[in-house]
Structure formats: structure tokens, C-alpha cells
Amino acid sequence: MKRVINFSGGKTSALMTILLKPTVDDIVLFTDTGREHPLTYKFIDDFEKYEGIKVTRVSYMNMTAEIFDSFVRKEKFLPNQQMRTCTVNLKIKTAKRYLRSIGIQSFESYIGFRADEERRVKGYKQYHTKVKPKFPLYDMGISKADVTQYWLTKSYTLDVPSILGNCDLCFLKGKSAIITILQHYPELADKWIADEKAIGATYFKDFSYQNLLDISKNQLSLFELDSQLPAYNCSCTSI
Predict the structure, then answer these.
(1) Count of CB atoms within 10 A of residue 1's CB?
(2) Per the confidence metrics, is the pTM higher than 0.90?
(3) How far apart are CA 134 and CA 109, in angstroms?
(4) Least confident of 43-47, 121-125, 176-180
(5) Please, what are the domains in the chain?
(6) Which residues contact 29 (CB under 8 A, 6 or more apart)?
(7) Which letter does DSSP use for residue 165 in this model?
(8) Residue 185's CB: how many other CB atoms inside 10 A?
(9) Residues near 234 by Cβ (< 8 Å), separated by ≥ 6?
(10) Do residues 142 and 15 make contact, with C-beta atoms less than 8 angstroms apart?
(11) Which of 3, 8, 86, 214 is least surrounded, with the fewest CB atoms within 10 Å of its CB?
């Protein structure tokens, strides 16, 4: 059966991909939301260069820029914790659409959940009856500490705190984490604020990203990004 390796652009999925030793028959798939940290895209480029593994990059409506922006404005709706339309459309449906376009409907889907993420493995929802999910890092007993140690041995790495993985200010990271991120990178708020102004709504029920930016500027304590954890699981699984 065809192997599709879900590559998120982070260290964990990159290690999984390396350990799986992809052949030309496998597909290493990165579904781009357009809201990743710039160093994530650099890491993907470095991964291809140093590992000699091709990463297939796909995006919503085959766009190369302003992907998330276009999605929000087309839908005229802001995703939120209860209705993760961004995950469904920018990740799951985009990946399925690409695979169907090249004639693939049945395949093994490799997902980078680690041994210390048993809850995520057991709570994984399968969106396609012809897809067989595989969790190789979980099966091999590889934890977050193992992933961190592995990348200390490499000549390149993803040089951003883990809280900046996936969409940089994803609402699922929670208000506290977003405020801390904005204390370090206030410019990241611009596109999220623009979304809310364009739609006339907010990602959070009782706060706007402008509110969070204002709080970040007035909050005296500056927490380290490395200590921040998302409030909810914000790692989007493609398929």
C-alpha cells in the first residue's frame, strides 16, 4: 500500500520521516497554511537539502501566498476552537484533493505522534475509511526528549521554540501563550488583526487579537517562549 508521510515542518515529523527512509514510491506531504513561522519554511528547505528527501508541498486552492487570508475571506467566517474549519479545509481536504488528483485514494498515513502522546494516538479520528493510520514514533517509544536530543546531533535544525510550531498565533495556543509570543514578536499580530477586521468577528469569543497585542505591550513580565505550552492541541493532522 502507498505510504503518505505527514510532514508538518517540525522536528518531530522530520525525525519520523528520516526514520521511515522514504523511497521514490512514498509521498512526504506538507500542507501549507501560509501562517507558519518563516524559519519553518527554511527548515523544510534545509531538510530537503541535507537529507536528500523530497517534500511535496500543497496548499489550499494551489496558492503560493496569502493562503490563510484567502481562505478566511472566501469563507467569510473565522475558525475557532469549536469549528476548526482551517484544519478541515487547509489541511485535511487539501491533502485529500491532492492525493486524488494523482490517483491515490487508499494509503497508509504516517503521523508523528510520539510515545508521550498516547492520548492523541488513542483520540485520533480517522477521516477516510480507505486510509490506514500509522504512528511509528509512538510504536518505537520515541519521546519529546528523544526528538530534542536527536536534533542536537544534526548540522541544521528548526531554530524556533516549539510554541511557534504550526500557525504562529493559532487560537488553540490559548490567550496566555499568544500574549507571551506577542511580547517577543508583536509583528505577528498584524495578519490576525486584519482577518478580524475583514470579517467583522473575532477568533476568541471575548477577546480580539488587537486586545491580546495591547495586553502584551502592557504586561510587565516577559516569559520565556521555551516554557510555553499550547492550551489545546494545535498540531493539525493532515489526513
Answers:
(1) 10
(2) no
(3) 6
(4) 121-125
(5) 3-152 (3.40.50.620), 162-227 (no CATH)
(6) 4, 5, 6, 7, 55, 56, 58, 95, 98, 99, 238
(7) S
(8) 16
(9) 166, 167, 170, 172, 173
(10) yes
(11) 214
